[in-house]
Write a structure and sequence with these properties.
The strands form 2 sheets. Strands 2, 4, 5, 6, 9, 10 and 11 form a 7-stranded mixed sheet that branches. The mean pLDDT is 96. It is built from no helices and 11 strands. The chain is mainly β.
Length: 114
């Protein structure tokens, strides 16, 4: 069973930045799609950003220009860095890995508050 270990998050002031990391216990070297989703209270889970083995990142319109997702092959990990955080970025952020099966992390809280 593949496990996803998430780290980062916490409480950040508006305009601040965050770094979320997600490491997979194993990852298919031939194909994977890995990224971050988020779910705010009362809202549906939505894609924030993802990255495939081919290296093409995808970003939600709401974070374009504020987020960068990158890959760390040595750790089977993806890192999401966001800046200029807004109150509406507050949510539980979930790591997602898609290969032969789909896996989810347990979620990590990000709160943007003054």
């Amino acid at each position: 069973q593949v496990q996803l270990v998430e780290s980062g998050g916490g409480t950040v002031s508006p305009g601040g930045s965050l770094r979320l990391s997600c490491a997979a216990s194993e990852r298919n070297p031939n194909f994977w799609l890995m990224g971050w989703y988020r779910q705010a209270p009362g809202k549906q889970r939505e894609l924030v950003a993802d990255l495939s083995k081919l290296g093409t990142p995808m970003y939600a319109d709401s974070v374009k220009g504020r987020a960068i997702i990158s890959n760390d092959n040595s750790k089977n990990a993806v890192i999401l860095e966001m800046n200029n955080l807004k109150l509406e970025d507050t949510a539980v952020y979930y790591c997602n890995l898609q290969q032969s099966q789909e896996y989810w992390g347990q979620g990590i809280q990000v709160t943007v508050s003054s």
